[in-house]
Predict the 3D structure of the following.
Amino acid sequence: MGKADYGLAMRAMFGDLSQCGDYAYVRSDGAYLCVALIDVLGHGPDARKVAEMIVAYLEERDFSNLALLLEGLHRHIFGTRGAVAALCRLDVNTGRLSYSGIGNIVVKIFGGHPLRMVLRDGVVGFGRIKPQVAHVTLHPDDILTLFSDGIREFAGSASCIERSLGTQGTQAAQGIPGTAEEMVSSIMKNCAKESDDASCIVVKYVQDEENAQDSLSRDPRSPGERAAEL
Ligand SMILES: [Mn+2]
């Protein structure tokens, strides 16, 4: 069994969130965490309208097939200014993560098993898109991050994100300290650009110690006794 601790933030280049074309969305759906990071082209209230249209669409749908979801979204907002988007669905019990996306949202795992996801080019709501779904399994203490191009990923050759997380890449044994919310605020503080709307989501996948796999295998009771407890 696992747990997912998450945090999210968005910040408009001008004014308040009613001017922000970025949208960070997380929803808990039973055993699944549904995650979306959206960057509508442009800024201001018109971009915000499209962002809200996207989130209203996502809100009503399940995330079991991310490619179909992106294709539906593409049709739903076709003719608007369009957006780039990344979608994830995490099975909190197993750590299995499905992801899909179109355009330049960054989806990256930090911790002991760092990984950068590759998304398809294109714009949701404009031209043609060919979303693909891929899967990866999160390990305990892995940090999943999604952020828009309003977040500066590198400062020179150094990773602004790693500096904000307080890690230099491979750091698994004790995990990276801090809550997901603290990580998000640190990223927004250190890496958000002045010149764009900015948004970021952090999901910290934690092993639930009472139900950890190895404590189960060390359980001296018989499987029958264990089952009786369920
Ligand atoms: Mn942007």
Summary: The pocket of manganese (II) ion is lined by residues 39, 148-150, 196-197 (CB under 6 Å). The longest strand covers residues 2-11. The CA atoms of residues 45 and 75 lie 22 Å apart. Confidence is low (pLDDT under 50) at residues 214-230.
